[in-house]
Amino acid sequence: MINLGRYITGPSSNREMVKNQIINRGIRDPRVIQAFLEVDRKGFVPENKIHQAYDDHPLPIGNGQTISQPYMVAEMTEILGLDKNDTVLEIGTGSGYQTAILAKLAREVFTIEIIPTLAVKTQKKLEKLGFLNIHYKIGSGFEGWHEYALYNGIIVTAAPTDIPEALVAQLADGGRMVIPVGERSHHQTLYLVKKDGEDIHILNKGAVAFVPMVKE
Fold first, then answer.
1. Terminal Cα-to-Cα distance of the chain (whole angstroms)
2. How far is CA 170 from CA 68, 92, 105, 165, in A?
3. Which domains does the chain have, with CATH numbers?
């Protein structure tokens, strides 16, 4: 059992969320746990959902989008396996919660959001919080952000029906991508895509449910 006292303290409710929903459910990477303790989820949910900020489920953030369940954010982050010198591409900035976690773990984060009003609002929030290693783009994530490729990690927070080839092409050798795939009305599957030279390995990481990834 991980001793929570080893880690930096944060808002008490956030600490309890990390203990009960993340550590007790099997997340073990100390850097991931530290990031979740430093980034208070309450700051990334709408005002009318503050009372549910630490609950174990997704929450609506407007525009048909959601902030993911805390454990799911942690699981995807741990699977991604970021190093402090890595660059990572995020498809779906959303509320900025996952973005902030990534920014604590990687050297640089490149994040794309297709909904302009959400993108602008979230960028202002993250800049106000002092994150200086995040780069922002408004647009479709299907083609990635080729100007800054190759990436050590890619994380996709909405579900396409197939794994986009453009994203696979933007992985560096040894890079990893975590992506949910599937139709909205059916069970989706979380995949880990690993690039090893010319070889691509795709591993099934279990059933998930995400909002669909859209092109416009």
1. 45
2. 25, 16, 20, 9
3. 55-208 (3.40.50.150)
118-171 tens-digit pLDDT: 999 999 999 999 999 999 999 999 999 999 999 999 999 999 999 999 999 999
Amino acid identity at 60: P
Nearest-angstrom CA–CA distance, 29 and 83:
11
At residue 163, the 3 state secondary structure works out as coil
Q: Does the predicted model carry a pTM greater than 0.85?
A: yes
As annotated, the active-site residues are 68
How is residue 130 annotated by DSSP? T
Residue 81 tokens, joined: 């396996």
The pair phi, psi for residue 147, each rounded to 5°, is: -60, -30
How many Cα atoms within 13 Å fall on the side-chain side of residue 182?
A: 15
Residue carrying the six token digits 């303290």:
9
